[in-house]
UniProtKB/TrEMBL annotation:
Keywords: DNA-binding, Repressor, Transcription, Transcription regulation
Protein name (Swiss-Prot/TrEMBL): TetR/AcrR family transcriptional regulator
Highest taxon, organism lineage: Bacteria
InterPro entries: DNA-bd_HTH_TetR-type_CS, Homeodomain-like_sf, HTH_TetR, Tet_transcr_reg_TetR-rel_C_sf, TetR_C
Length: 210
């Protein structure tokens, strides 16, 4: 989908007006596809059809624009893991649904491939380490949500008492992040769903010895 708004006629000498929401949509797509470092302010302003002073006036800085793009991403996609945890009956159903959802969402042609949070700001310069910290914290929060559901599964008798829920949650988080990279490299929904199904084979059986 082309997010760049069509040009409009304007009077000579008047500053070009732009839709801030459309500009944010463009920034989200570019940051999602390229990452923070690889997306320059020149790239952004060219895609938005505005000047750098206009970008700074609207968003403060490239970093400020990135943070707003992350907020928009989270608003649309960031709550899905918790929603599945809350709505699925068993922990196994919830984790399987999370992986299946990732396979579908990361390959959805209506937006950039992969996950902006899983792949976002993996490497940044010294001046932007706070962005890296934010992305790490968001990834850790998703992993922590899965761990809490696994802990509950032990108390409910769904998982053996000996289950290392920290490692199991980290494993599923690793699979999710790997699926994001695979999608970015062109993997299909079908291939990612196969990976998701294979990943579930490590699920500990409740009747195994504690």
């Amino acid at each position: 989908m082309n997010l760049i708004p069509p040009s409009t006629k304007r009077s000579a000498g008047r500053p070009r007006a732009f839709d801030r929401n459309v500009a944010l949509e463009i920034a989200l797509d570019m940051f999602w596809r390229r990452g923070f470092e690889a997306t320059s302010t020149t790239d952004l302003t060219a895609a938005m059809g505005i000047s750098q002073p206009s970008l700074y006036a609207a968003f403060g800085s490239k970093e400020g624009l990135y943070r707003e793009a992350v907020e928009l991403y989270l608003l649309r996609y960031g709550t899905r893991v918790q929603q599945l945890i809350d709505t699925k009956g068993s922990a196994r159903e919830a984790v399987a649904a999370i992986l299946a959802n990732a396979a579908h969402q990361y390959t959805d042609s209506s937006h950039a491939p992969g996950c902006m949070i899983a792949s976002g700001a993996l490497q940044v310069g010294p001046a932007h380490t706070d962005l890296l910290t934010q992305m790490v914290e968001l990834r850790q929060a998703a992993q922590a949500a899965i761990k809490l559901r696994l802990d509950r599964a032990i108390n409910e008798g769904e998982l053996p008492k000996r289950t290392d829920t920290s490692s199991l949650a980290a494993y599923f988080a690793m699979v999710i992040q790997g699926m994001s990279v695979q999608a970015h490299d062109g993997a299909t929904s079908v291939s990612l769903k196969r990976i998701a199904k294979l990943a579930m084979e490590v699920w500990p059986e409740a009747n195994s010895s504690d």
